[in-house]
Write a structure and sequence with these properties.
- A hairpin with a 4-residue loop joins strand 5 (166-168) and strand 6.
- The longest helix is centred in the middle third of the chain and has 14 residues, at 92-105.
- Helix 3 (43-50) crosses helix 4, helix 5 (92-105) packs antiparallel against helix 6 (109-117) and helix 5 (92-105) runs antiparallel to helix 10 (182-192).
- Strands 1-3-2 form a three-stranded antiparallel beta sheet. A three-stranded antiparallel beta sheet has the order 4-6-5.
- The chain folds into two domains: 1-23 and 105-195, Arc Repressor Mutant, subunit A; 25-84, Arc Repressor Mutant, subunit A (Orthogonal Bundle), CATH 1.10.10.
- The chain is elongated.
- The chain has ten helices and six strands.
- By secondary structure, it is mainly alpha-helical.
Length: 195
Amino acid sequence: MKNNTTLSSNELKPTLWRTCRVLANRWRLRILGELFKRPGQSVTLIASRLDIPASLASRYLRDLNARGLLQARRVGSTVQYTPAANPSIPQASALLEALQRTFRDQQDPVRLVFRQVTAFTHPRRSLIVTALASGPLQVAELRRMTAMSRSAIKRHIQKLESRTLVLRTRDDHVALARPKEPLAAALLAHAASPP
């Protein structure tokens, strides 16, 4: 079923692309990995374990908390951080679960997560995935639905293809892929979900 409307800016999934921008930082990912291993750590302890300035650890922890991936709890004079999804943030639970599985199962989780989340650090890539959720489309139709220039649509499709999130069919349509990796699947499901 083809949709004859242009997708609006309301469908740009700001939560997803902003969350992916926060996650597209190797230090934040290392902090998240450290908390998966040892939940309930303070800023000072994380900074010490990762050998980074406490001010940087504090900022990165606040960033992860703001995206609904960590819970901050005051214990005495310190704040302890634990991986926990904020139920008020759409898809935080599914994303956090996929991140935990990736950190548990992958040899180099920081590299893999960084690569996957950079697919969605621009809101227009979410727009493309939303358009493709109803089925494969020709590039011209995708351009019309997303109101993107030829060069922009080409660039964004190439980024999504390089992350194996979309693919080109034999009849020159673009379609959503079915990734097996849990994080890629969670990101794609969130991007494809209705606004």
